[in-house]
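This section describes the prediction task in plain terms. A model, or a person checking by hand, is given the sequence of a single protein chain and must write out its three-dimensional structure as a string of tokens. No templates, partner chains or ligands are provided. The sample shown here is typical of the held-out split.
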Amino acid sequence: MKTQPNHRAEILGQYIIENRTTVRAAAKKFGISKSTVHKDVSERLPKVNPSLYVQVKDILEINKQERHIRGGLATKIKYQELAKKRG
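The expected answer:
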């Protein structure tokens, strides 16, 4: 994704809002690093489009609150698949 950083920040913000996605998922979709996505939406976006930033921030806060649940589910699935292979 070769665009100007400020424009990229707005594109990423829109994507996160429309898909209610995580920083990791947005990074994978656009082929850039999680660090770049995080920097764009947390540092550049407030300067470029403050109203969009508020919406993105709300989604990222929800993701932050839910991450321990997602991690637990991923671990559960991992060990269920290992058990199937063995058994």
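For orientation: The chain has four helices and no strands.
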